[in-house]
Amino acid sequence: MPLRAMVLEEDRATKLLVTERLAEEGYETVLCPDISAVLDAVERNNVHICVVGARYRGVDGYDIVRQLRHKSGAGLILLGNSEDEIDAVLALEMGADDYMVKPVRPRELCARVRAVVRRIAAAAPDADGTRPMPSPSLRRVGNVEICGVRRSVRIGGQPIELTTFEFDVLMVLVAHTNAILSRDQIIKSVRGDQWSISDRSVDGIISRLRRKLFAGEEGNRRIKTVHGRGYMLLEAQMLDEV
């Protein structure tokens, strides 16, 4: 099967540049008349990577990324207009694999596309399009049940909604239970070396995980802050030992 890509970008010059560079990387560009056709194409697994602009056919790029991630495990790169960290974090939380600020630098684009494709190849999508991380298929932390294959979290049988970024951080913590992870280690495990995200952003994700998964003070005990070093997810038998 040939490699296929979509370029969802309103700016003609940027779209032409990205399309030409992807062609040099061996990608065929899939053309779709509207957003519904785009979603249909990725759902049929005919697309390997999508490069999404800040807006496309009047639809916000972040919303397009969210819809695409819900439908497919294809690689998603969002092209933004802002260097503000919050925009990059939002893109990741919506389900993007990477975020680039325009104007597009061709060599950087190709390098990022290759990096995204490598990560996808290392964690091939499940039958329903979800993309597992290397981890046990099912883990429990207290009454929280985490399935890495289906990328789902349940408490007492009830599904818990997590953003893509929140789930990925949770899986990193689960994979290193009872070990201290620095903020840099967490970010690099989830997104690689190319992201520069502040400690405050990591702290915010940890805070939301505590609130969503555990009641009251249990969140602070389960995901323990180790001052000056980072965070540690504790198994039940370790709670009284630290």
TrEMBL record:
The keyword Hydrolase does not apply. GO terms for molecular function: phosphorelay response regulator activity; transcription cis-regulatory region binding. Residues 4-117 form the Response regulatory domain. Keywords: DNA-binding, Phosphoprotein, Transcription, Transcription regulation, Two-component regulatory system. SUPFAM superfamilies: C-terminal effector domain of the bipartite response regulators, CheY-like. One of its GO terms (biological process) is regulation of DNA-templated transcription. Coiled coil: none annotated. Signal peptide: none annotated. GO terms for cellular component: cytosol; protein-DNA complex. It comes from the Bacteria. This is Transcriptional regulatory protein OmpR. The lineage of its organism: Bacteria, Pseudomonadati, Pseudomonadota, Alphaproteobacteria, Rhodobacterales.
